[in-house]
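[Meeting: bench + compute handoff]

Bench side (C.D.) handed over the final construct sequence. Compute side (W.E.) agreed to return the predicted structure before the next meeting so the bench team could plan truncations. Sequence as handed over:
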Amino acid sequence: MNSHERNRLHSTRREFFGRAATGIGTAALASMLAKTGLGSNPGLATVSSLGDNLAQNSKTGGLAGLPHFAPRAKRVIALLQNGAPSHADLFDWKPKLAELHGQSVPESYVAGKRFSTMTGKADGKLMLAPIEPFQQRGKSGAWVSNLLPYTAAVADELTFVKGMHTDAVNHAPAISFLLSGAQIPGRPSLGSWMNYGLGSEVDDLPNFIVMTSVSKGTTCGQIFYDFYWGSGFLPSTHQGIKFRGSGDPVLYLSNPDGMSRAMRREWLNDIAQLNQKQLDDFGDPEIATRIAQYEMAFKMQASVPELTDLSDEPQSILDMYGPGVSEPGTFAHNCLLARRLAERGVGFTQLMHAGWDQHNSLTTEFYTQCRDTDQASAALVMDLKQRGMLDDTLVIWGGEFGRTPFIQGDINNRARWGRDHHPYAYTMWMAGAGLKPGLSFGQTDDLAMNVIDESVHIHDLQATILHLLGINHEKLTYKFQGRQFRLTDVHGEVVKQILA
């Protein structure tokens, strides 16, 4: 017998501990697998804290006892504008900002504040007026820039949150903070928390889907990091599934030449048996994830081509979303897919559009960003409304922070005007389930520099989103590394003033 054969016959240290833990692992996994029928004994009792984290509600696949109260929203569509749109140029009209154009920012507005390294100290920076006029819109009288004519036309359907502020001053930490409640990567994202707590109402598509886009020709695109839709320390079945913007949305949707769907089914059955044997031996939840994801992939081979086939959409709907709607990978195309996903019961759809980082392109690429996102964003709201879906769908639009009311660059060179990162005040809008339409909530000072009334911190926004989903944000927790974690950390208050 050679040395390789002897090593194979001897149990390794990893195998010993894996097999020793099988009893506990199997007990804990039984309830987790009950929903899909993968567990050998769905009625098996769970074990202490492991059971607390893995206990499933067989009706929805979420945690037992959730939702905590009647939800107003059944699903969320997040239209995230990576790079941070300028609130001072889009939603937060300040006449004094125009009056002080070209003058130094008053020290009292910026004293003691931290800006990005590109600005450093803000002392002596020159104020920059909005680059296009504002008008009051609809019956609500909401101020919206001429840069967003389609959004302006649906202003009475929107809830503007003008007192937003955050803790982060750079893009990736700020986006991570917005989506996971922490600036450092590794925490579960909002969609993962929702998926974990409430489960899924659809079985042939993932319940958390992500699509990304960027305007053509932009020089200020942001990187789409996977942790923006990661599950962190939650079971990896809850992470977001990214649809690609070209070719098949998901790789390997088509079977290889010579393999029929029946053959694929038999092949997956055999693989499932092998994985089940490993699961029985080691009780590793990631093996259960592998089994579940293979099954989901098989179902998506049928559901995704039907989802992405827009031939059944009336021309009037395609026209409503704008000229880019038929081109995969555009924001308009993704918005229409988001509506189609909502119709099919997907719980959380996260669209991310990059390119809003106007450090020196406020009078050029900023216009492109507005054109590429304005019509489709408004169309999504109205499309949902005319189908009766806006009543139970929450739509969110906004970036990770705002832009400075003072200029970055030479005020005498309009073609290179820009604004730097600004965490102290900015605007987001929401629409749909459980919100007061036509409301502008929160107020900044007369230079759009600081929030002075009805401030909304990132954790407050997260608490409010969960509240609309029927979740008490303080009670949706997961024990990891010895303590209970939640999306809002130890902060957050529901913004009840914007609730209908």
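W.E. noted at the follow-up: The radius of gyration is 25 Å. C.D. will use this when planning the next construct.
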